Structures are given as structure tokens and as C-alpha cells.
UniProtKB/TrEMBL annotation:
It catalyses: a quinol + 2 Fe(III)-[cytochrome c](out) = a quinone + 2 Fe(II)-[cytochrome c](out) + 2 H(+)(out). Residues 1-30 form the signal peptide. Its EC number is 7.1.1.8. The cytochrome bc1 complex is composed of a cytochrome b (QcrB), the Rieske iron-sulfur protein (QcrA) and a diheme cytochrome c (QcrC) subunit. This is Cytochrome bc1 complex cytochrome c subunit. It is an enzyme of class 7 (translocase). InterPro entries: bc1_cytC-su, Cyt_c-like_dom, Cyt_c-like_dom_sf, Cytochrome_c_Oxidase_Subunit, TAT_signal. It is found in: Cell membrane.
Length: 269
């Protein structure tokens, strides 16, 4: 009994008991705790990439190559990032119906879940712009006036000052921005689709992109006022001048002819 009591009072006894307790706690946690969140996210990402690879093989590989390396019918997708995929597929531009000077927007054929899977696979081919979160592209709290200045400086040359779009060279055109979602507007600025230059955060910070989105939504909204009357598509002085020449001048000519005809009748009588 004296020997046992002496062992219990040994200076290292408390340390040994503590180590045993920690080991037991760690073992129980490893046995019964849920899987680590990072590991679960990694597994989900791997599954998304695998599903995206299958979708890619069916709808994209014929033009962009089996590994996204590109072919004579389509550019390489290595390094375009998930933002480019989300924009191109989400707006229905991809898969393209036929080759041409420019691929038009159309109804998309994939669900958002499938688009996310395609984006995950293409992103795995090489680092590129990442699809934005709602916080990044939401125009809430943005400066519309500042967005208008930025839009007129960087975008109006092609898209018109109200985002109605316009013609470019060789059959190309700047599409109308009416009805385009905030997310796709942000992604277009990120990635520079087709003829459009890209505006990464190093060139145009996130705040400025949000300001531009807020401006576009303000001028293309259903309740946007038109102080000058009929907006004529918002295309600017060209359409307004053409309207004036055709209808205004035409009305004056018609009135002049009517006056002349009635004057001649009056003289005869």
C-alpha cells in the first residue's frame, strides 16, 4: 500500500493522466465526429468536376478539344476561369448554334447546377477569373452617377450611352444590355467576352463595376422616365435626326402640297 501511494504521488503522475485523457478524447472525437468541412468541400468539388467533365465531353469538346486545349473551331479554355463559363453558358451563347462573326445571346439549355459543374471542370484546367458572389455584383448602395461617368468613358462607344447596343465592324455588334442580369454584367466586365475588352479588378475595382451595373439598371428599368417624350430606342441623335427628317420634314411637305392644292382650287372657282 505504501508503494502504491508513493506511485500515485509521483511528480509525473498528473502528466501521465492528462496525456491519457487527451488521447482518449481525441480518439472518441475521431470516431464519432462528422467529417471535416474542408474535406467535405473538397469531395463535393471533385464530384462537380467529374460531372462537369461529362457535360463538357457531350456539349463542348467537339469545338474546344477533349482537354479544353482548343481547335480550329473553338479557342482554348485553359485559364478562362469559371466566370467565363458561367457567362457564356448562362446567357445561352454556348454551346454555339453555328459559326459566325458573333455568337448571339439565346435561351440557355443547362440548369444552374449543370453550369456550375461545367465551370468547375473548366476552372480545373487552369486558373482564371472566378464567378462572383452576390455581394460582389449587387448594385445595392452603389453610386449611380459615378457609374454613369464610368460607363460613358469605358462602354458607351460600343453599347450606346443607355446600353442599347450598336453596330461594329465586319458583322460584329455590341449587344443590348437590357434585361442582362447583374451577375452576367459583372462577369462580362471580368472576362471580356468576344469583342469586348476585359476589366479585371486591377483595372476596374469591384466598387466601380457595381457602380456601372447600378447605372445600367437605372437607365434600362421599366420605370425609367423619358423627359423628351418617345425614346426612339434610346439610340441617340442619329435615330432622333432620322425621325425628324422623315416624319417632320415629310409632314411639312404634305402640308405644303395640301395648301398649294387648295389654293389652286380657290383660284379656279
Amino acid at each position: 500500500m505504501k508503494k502504491l501511494s508513493a506511485r500515485r504521488r509521483h511528480p509525473l503522475a498528473a502528466v501521465v493522466v492528462l496525456l491519457l485523457a487527451l488521447a482518449a478524447t481525441g480518439g472518441l472525437y475521431a470516431a464519432f465526429a462528422p467529417a471535416d468541412k474542408a474535406q467535405a468541400d473538397e469531395t463535393a468539388q471533385s464530384l462537380a468536376i467529374e460531372e462537369g467533365k461529362k457535360l463538357y465531353a457531350v456539349g463542348c469538346a467537339s469545338c474546344h478539344g477533349t482537354g479544353g486545349q482548343g481547335t480550329s473551331d473553338g479557342p482554348s479554355l485553359v485559364g478562362v476561369g469559371s466566370a467565363a463559363v458561367d457567362f457564356q453558358v448562362g446567357t445561352g451563347r454556348m454551346p454555339a448554334q453555328q459559326p459566325g462573326a458573333q455568337v448571339p445571346r439565346k435561351k440557355n439549355i443547362y440548369s444552374q447546377a449543370q453550369i456550375d459543374q461545367l465551370a468547375a471542370y473548366v476552372a480545373s484546367l487552369g486558373a482564371g477569373p472566378i464567378a462572383p458572389t452576390e455581394k460582389q455584383y449587387s448594385p445595392e448602395g452603389a453610386d449611380i452617377a459615378r457609374g454613369g461617368d464610368l460607363f460613358r468613358t469605358n462602354c458607351a462607344q460600343c453599347h450606346n450611352f443607355t446600353g442599347e447596343g450598336g453596330a461594329l465592324t465586319k458583322g460584329k455588334y455590341a449587344p443590348s444590355l437590357e434585361g442582362v442580369s447583374e451577375k452576367h454584367l459583372y462577369e462580362a466586365m471580368q472576362t471580356g467576352p468576344q469583342n469586348m475588352p476585359s476589366f479585371p479588378d486591377t483595372t476596374m475595382p469591384e466598387k466601380e463595376k457595381k457602380d456601372i451595373i447600378a447605372y445600367i439598371k437605372s437607365v434600362n428599368g421599366d420605370e425609367t422616365p423619358t423627359p423628351g417624350g418617345f425614346a426612339l430606342g434610346g439610340l441617340g441623335p442619329v435615330s432622333e435626326g432620322l425621325f425628324g427628317w422623315i416624319f417632320g420634314l415629310g409632314a411639312l411637305i404634305a402640308v405644303a402640297i395640301w395648301v398649294a392644292a387648295h389654293t389652286a382650287k380657290a383660284k379656279k372657282s
